[in-house]
Design the sequence.
């Protein structure tokens, strides 16, 4: 699994109805995109208390082939570049994914919690603890699904969660409204940790 997001910050007086119309008329284009686990079409609005107006789609890719076709194969990202310019694309290696009790419902909100992996800690133990926390977090009422991913260049960990409804703000979290969810292979994203454990030699 690969996590990916680009965040397009728009002018303070930007009519976010333009983005809503864009998603309403074009969002279904990825509803059957091969290799895509899910794409959440996300926005933040100043009118709803956000510090910025922002269009910020978030992706969980089932395969790197699908991600590459989207980015470089003329299958979607070129439209973003043509309309908004080329935004930085954040990406992380997926380490865990869990389905929540509201997986069958359409999510209306999303949160992204970001934290550094502290220097001097054992990354193996750190990730193991975070995976335990992910399982507990994903079992909360209203959770559609939740993913854990790491950027090992900057040692940044993110936990991305889709919710059936809006939730109370927590420190270190970005909150988004979900306008549409394309989820062609969400049910195929493996749950639990995302690597095979090599048995130790005896």
Sequence:
């Amino acid at each position: 699994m690969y996590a990916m997001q680009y965040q397009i910050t728009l002018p303070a007086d930007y009519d976010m109805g333009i983005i809503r119309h864009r998603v309403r008329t074009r969002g279904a284009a990825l509803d059957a995109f091969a290799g895509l686990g899910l794409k959440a079409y996300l926005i933040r609005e100043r009118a709803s208390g956000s510090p910025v107006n922002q269009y910020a789609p978030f992706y969980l890719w089932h395969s790197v082939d699908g991600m590459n076709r989207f980015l470089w194969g003329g299958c979607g990202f070129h439209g973003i570049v043509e309309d908004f310019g080329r935004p930085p694309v954040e990406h992380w290696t997926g380490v865990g994914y869990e389905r929540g009790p509201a997986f069958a419902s359409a999510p209306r909100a999303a949160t992204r919690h970001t934290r550094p992996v502290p220097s001097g800690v054992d990354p193996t133990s750190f990730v193991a603890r975070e995976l335990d926390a992910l399982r507990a977090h994903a079992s909360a009422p209203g959770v559609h699904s939740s993913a854990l991913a790491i950027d090992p260049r900057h040692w940044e960990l993110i936990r991305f969660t889709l919710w059936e409804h809006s939730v109370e703000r927590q420190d270190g979290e970005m909150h988004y409204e979900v306008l549409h969810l394309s989820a062609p292979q969400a049910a195929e994203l493996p749950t639990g940790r995302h690597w095979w454990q090599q048995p130790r030699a005896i």
Observations:
- The helical segments are 17-26, 64-72, 77-84, 123-138.
- The mean pLDDT is 93.
- The CA atoms of residues 95 and 194 lie 5 Å apart.
- DSSP finds four helices and eleven strands in the chain.
